[in-house]
Amino acid sequence: MTTCKSVIAVLDSFMPFDCVAKKDNSGLLIGDETAVVNKVLFAVDLTEAVIEEAIRLQCQMIVTHHHIMGKGIRRVTSTSFEGRAIAALLRHGIAFVVCHNNLDFLPGGTADTLMKAVGAPQSRPLYAGFGFLATTPAESAAATIPVPDRAGLPAGTQAMFGTVGELSEPCTLSEVIERLHGIVTGPVNVVGEDERLIRSVAVQVGAGGRADIDQTLARGADLLITGDVRHDDRLYAAEVGLALLDFCHYEVELPGIISLAGMLKRALAAAQLPVEVVLSQAVAPVRHLRMPDELDLSRFK
């Protein structure tokens, strides 16, 4: 039998839970470490639909990228989603595990997955000096967020707050978008002409902004791939001459959680732990509709 603690240990071997920012809340947030786990459900967000899916599929663990405890919970009652979620998880014996900053910062995570998809095999931190896998005490002292030694991580692994790298071969902006087909779904706001030549790319998943635009320019990249960019920041990118792909938050982080599920599945098999890994099929609470591209000016009369 495989315990919750064993599954978390396997996750921690390649996606360390202590490789996070100071106020981040990753790891086992709800559940019994000694409980048996036969099936794990992966999702971006913990929603009521995801919890219902886990109950229906008889999963003993849910792993998400986002947590529900970021602002602190003062009470657990049925009057709030957080209270209902915690009560349901405890009632059905489902552990709740979050991979937030570690999935953002490390290989195989949200940013790294997109970098490899567009054809940039080697990445470096978008924000230099953020953290790295130290090999000497002096290096450890210099790292902002040092990556701990783990069996599943090669020596020299960097914890990267955003990534930047050169494409294997320069291509046009439209070709970069094509490479993301089937990787990122939903609408995308595009700054830059289709035929613009792209040599290097920066990725800052989740919510990007003006600081990331400035940092991308400072690192010499031609394109920033991110999400949830404010309208005025998109205009700013155009003004300073930076190409931009602005996706929705959920859609730009979903590839990372799919990658994580695959990594855990392979690691569990290598450890000979009989645990099934499944991806959530629950419908996201926010859906995207495309309105007609052309205005009907007659309706403004």
Structural overview:
- It contains ten helices and eleven strands.
- 33% of the residues lie in helices and 18% in strands.
- The chain is α/β, with parallel strands linked by helices and 301 residues long.
- Helix 1 packs across helix 10 (249-270) and helix 5 (110-118) crosses helix 10 (249-270).
- It has three domains: 4-99 and 254-278, NIF3 (NGG1p interacting factor 3)-like (Udp-n-acetylmuramoylalanyl-d-glutamate--2,6- Diaminopimelate Ligase, Chain: A, domain 1); 107-123 and 162-247, NIF3 (NGG1p interacting factor 3)-like (Udp-n-acetylmuramoylalanyl-d-glutamate--2,6- Diaminopimelate Ligase, Chain: A, domain 1, 3-Layer(aba) Sandwich); 127-160, no CATH class.
- The model is unreliable at 132-143 (pLDDT under 50).
What's the arrangement of secondary structure elements?
Blueprint: H1 4-14, E1 27-30, E2 39-43, H2 48-56, E3 61-64, H3 81-91, E4 95-98, H4 101-105, H5 110-118, E5 124-125, H6 137-142, E6 163-172, H7 173-179, E7 188-191, E8 197-204, H8 210-218, E9 223-227, H9 231-240, E10 243-247, H10 249-270, E11 276-279
Parallel strand pairs: 2-3, 2-11, 3-4, 8-9, 9-10
Antiparallel strand pairs: 1-4, 5-6, 6-8, 7-10
Helix pairs in contact: 1-10, 5-10
